[in-house]
Amino acid sequence: MTVHELRTRPGDAKRGDASDGAVLADQVGGRLSRVDGPAKITGAAKYAVEQQLEGLTHAVLVESTIAAGRVRSIDTAAAKASPGALLVLTPDNILPLRTATDWLGTPPPDVAYCPLARDITFSGQHVAAVVAETFEQAVAAAALVKIAYDEAAAIVDLSDPKAGDGIPVDAMTKEWGEAETAFASAPVRICNAYNTPREYQAPIEPHGLIAKWQGDQLTVWEPSQWLDGMARTYAEWFGVPFENVRLVSPYIGGGFGSKAFAYGYGAVAAVAAKMLGRPVKLAVTRPQTFTAYGGRAATRQTVALGANAEGQIQSIVHRGVNETSVDGMWVEPLGSVTSVMYATPNFSSRQNVVRVNTVVPGALRAPGENPSAFGIESAIDELAYEVGIDPLEIRLRNYAEQDPHAKKPWSTRQLREAFAAGAEAFGWSKRNPRPRSMRDGNQLIGWGVAAGTYPVRRAYGEAVVRILADGSVEVESSSIDMGQGTYTILAQTAAEVVGVPAENVVVKLGDSRYARAGVTGGSRLAGVMTGAVHKAASAALDQLIGLAISDPASPFHALQANTLVVANGRIASPRGNGPEVSIAELLSSVGREHIEAKGDTMPANSTVEDRYKNYTTIAMALPHTEGDYSRHSWCAHFIEVRVDEDFGTVRVSRVVSALDSGRLYNPKLAESQWKGGIIMGIGQALLEEGIVDRRHGRIVNNNLADYLIATNADIPDIEVISVGIPDPHSSVLGGKGVGELGIVGVAPAIANAVFHATGKRVRDLPITLEKLI
Amino acid sequence: MRDFSYLRASSVDAAREAAALPGAMLLAGGTTLVDLAKCGVAEPETVVDITHLKGLDTIAVDDRGATIGALARMSRVADHADIKSRFPAVSEALWQAASAQLRNMATIGGNLMQRTRCPYFRDPANFPACNKRWPGSGCSAIGGVTRGHAVLGTSEACVATYPGDLAVALVAFDAIVHLGDRQIAVDDFFLLPGSTPEREHAIEPGEMITAIGIPASAAARRSTYLKVRDRQSYEFAAASAAVGIEFEADGRTIRDLRVALGGVATKPWRARAVEEALNGKVLEPEVVRQASLLAVEGAVDRGANHYKIELAPRVVARAILKMGETA
Where are the domains of chain A? Predict the structure, then answer.
């Protein structure tokens, strides 16, 4: 198939959502607006650290001002004497904690954990903390803590001569065929290095928490992408049972991967609360959000593509490096897209991690896939120019009909459809292939394309569904909504199953006392939780119908029906003979306060330990290549840029993206998430970079005025097109991942467009004006 | 933030008197003062609130020029019909500055007093050395991250960039700063760092900006402010230019050219060499481009900010040519 043969054929696939017609907003697949929207717009939504507690105290962190070395002494006298100061925590007086199990489920070493450091491994590390009656008093006292250091030489980043080649991560090695030999003998060879800088999640709601102890019961109000995982960490730190820790996180102002774990500052606040016997609030400042936890690791990749003159890839040799911290391990899987996007008989991908003096990096939207796509999707664009083939055409020539690595068929892969739909909507066929061939006055115009993918991550979920006396439905889960729409799609799921309007469904999330849930990350939550709610709601409906049929007091008792239908909150017989009553009337007549059902999607023989592991670690997660299929979501971005030929400034003027996330539980919210990812990708491509002072090993642009993320003025209208179809192998209701997908491939699409506009290939993100001037 | 006393001034004289006390600082829109207090740079002992003083927020424009009260908000000045028609560069500079929220709070007087965005200046805990904050302590920026630092008007003591936009337009059109009865040309109001970078403005203890005067001119009437920056909004200039042109009767020969630069110098930077090179010349693209190179005469880069030396003349040339097109 060539570019010109690609045509969208609307209507030839059922997408399982409102685009098929006949799906109500209330149902799964409907375009229901966010049910939590009004509360957020009016300010009624109360976020975790907005709790007003009696006797609340305030903690402020004191951070290291060196990147490597040792704390020689800490003088706390002035801070202790400062007005309102209640407690000055240092490594010398903090209560000893135990090391907790990590998120992978690795049993912890039997060593103490101290969230305040004596040995300094990065600038901005927590060294001390001050608790005072008011926030202002705590700030003033914290400024009086005097720390003396013995400074050592720091390894500031990957380019530091002291950094070395790092540590091979064998688990990342993927190889088949004879990649190096095949590359060496390929008629066409390209080999280039692609770099991405440190990038940060920059959620609009900074991190923080309120910790309160009552005896050995700990309550933590903290924005969280993973209540059960974080509750486990707090419990293990303090050596109390998991059930003694309650995490509360009703709303989250953006997480992007950064709010899934309990971090050191959380331990500091909880320890202080225990030591003082009063609740403690600790709000991480904006500058501290750059060092209190990690952003995306800086990465380096080399991509070598060997091909024939027709642009068919014969070999891919990929080498990647990401930075990690001196004493922590973060692997950003750089070969993840490289190994699945294109068919190739020979392949080799290896990766090292390099220890530098930074906070341990962490997850940021599509960790791994995002930088991986920047490498391979830039490289294939370079190959297209090298062999003189349209950048879209070369992607089709190398289309992978099955997973080249796992050697399994795709569960669904609507990527060809994405290329077709995107190209048509964008007008790709009108593209002049020659760089610098399109302009508007001083503006050079370029069109670029790139593909993206994200694996379908699956786990098991649990939910409670109640049908209440007034006929309304309640859903409970300790999962969360950080803006992606959990409240809304779970309401739709319960509404559809039980047969009530969505406005009669109340979804309760963000409290670890509710039915348990695993991490909200890796785009798994919607698939997991719609499945769990579907099951629980079905069980509740069965109970309701069972009561209506069998309870002597039911108006349906005499009907001797074997089933009933519930629609719009009313119960009737399937054939319409007999009575019709509301759910509330039925429950009243049979004298029931409510019906409750708990449902989970765990395997039937699961043990208590299996369940605990499933909800508090990712050890039970199912690989995306488990069983007979390889499961991924897919996308294609078509992007137009305008580059000022004198100034080098790049502005994105048009985006058309076609995406395959399988079935969409709510197209309106999925489109919004995709656009959010694309907007973040525009910032990544053009603006975002943590800039390190090489003498001090410190990020100097640690605020939102200097760490640039895209503003509204940087974002054009974005057209997103769903090309997904229900994928029964990926989730109970047929959806694949949404949230991570949108950003993957945006940066290379922009870099490719910049090359088309200017003839300059930028392989180091971000694409700032001095690289083009 | 350290505790401070709050004093609400009852009159301009009372404000000036209070502001003369050691450790006193004036509070107008607060967008700079509160920010700097939070990052530990400003540690006032007394904050003298002048926001409610009457008569300081008027905007008066007539044939002689504009007088803008010190407490007029940036957004109001930017949107003023006579400012837009007679001083378009002033309005455009304001619109492109900061964010909508900041423009609604910040005042014109406070705008002139805003401090640099040098990251070393703004982080005393990590970078104690800063000659602006602590005279004689050294400059942490030199040898560090200098992508945003100045290439013009620097010294070995300080390379911090003047961050504002409005003052660039004011310098181009010979605006006057009113300090009560004393008046001073805006170009003289801003000081080069030299060996005393802690002194940024020619303002004495007990003085307060009361108004800004901008003389009317044909060049101001045909003027523009062109700001080039990494992102499209809420971002300081990589390089900017305020340009105004008065043509001779032939509509092609330049009689009076005004050029000032932002984002590249330690103060709002009048580019008189460019003006002198082009006054009396017919506006031709190549001539303009050549003359614009004079804008960065004497520029010294610190590595990562080298691009500013390339960029600034291109911004100047584009702005002059744009004004030429409207002739």
Answer: 3-25+295-457+625-771, 48-153+209-290, 459-616
Does residue B183 form part of some domain?
Answer: no
Determine, yes or no, domain membership for B63: no
Residue with tokens 């109640």: A466
pLDDT at A12 over 90: no
Q: Are B195 and B155 in contact (CB under 8 A)?
A: yes
Residue B29 lies in a domain: yes
The model's pTM is: 0.97
**Which positions in chain B touch A647 (Cβ < 8 Å)?**
228, 311, 314-315, 318
Under CATH, which number does the domain A3-25+295-457+625-771 receive?
A: 3.30.365.10
Supply the DSSP symbol for A19: G
Q: Tell me, what's the pLDDT at A25? A: 87
Kindly determine whether residue A773 and residue B311, on different chains, have CB atoms separated by under 8 Å: yes
Min Cα distance B107 → chain A (Å) is 20
Closest alpha carbon to A249 in A479, A39, A42, A443: A479
> In terms of Cα–Cα distance, which of A112, A111, A140, A115 is closest to A128?
A115
User: No. of H helices and E strands in chain A?
Assistant: 15, 32
Has residue A577 got a pLDDT over 90? Answer: no
User: Residue A662 is encoded by which pair of tokens?
Assistant: 């399988």
CA distance A468 to A302: 59
**Architecture label for domain A48-153+209-290:** Alpha-Beta Complex (3.90)
Q: Which residues pair with A211 in a beta bridge?
A: A220, A280
How would DSSP label each residue in A447-475?
Answer: EEEEEEEEE--B---EEEEEEETTS-EEE
Domain range for B14 is 5-49
Interface mutation vs chain A, best among B231, B235, B315, B322, most A CBs within 10 Å: B231
Asked: is A459-616 a CATH 3.40.1160.10 domain? The reply is no
pLDDT digits (tens, 9 = 90+) for B135-181: 999 999 999 999 999 999 999 999 999 999 999 999 999 999 999 99
In chain A, the percentage of residues whose pLDDT exceeds 90 is 96
SS3 call for A371: helix
Answer yes or no: do B123 and A714 touch at CB < 8 A: no
Q: What residues in A contact B315, CB-CB < 8 Å?
A: 647
The stretch A549-572 carries a mean pLDDT of 92
Residue-level pLDDT at A562: 85
**pLDDT of A230:** 98
> How many structural domains comprise chain B?
2
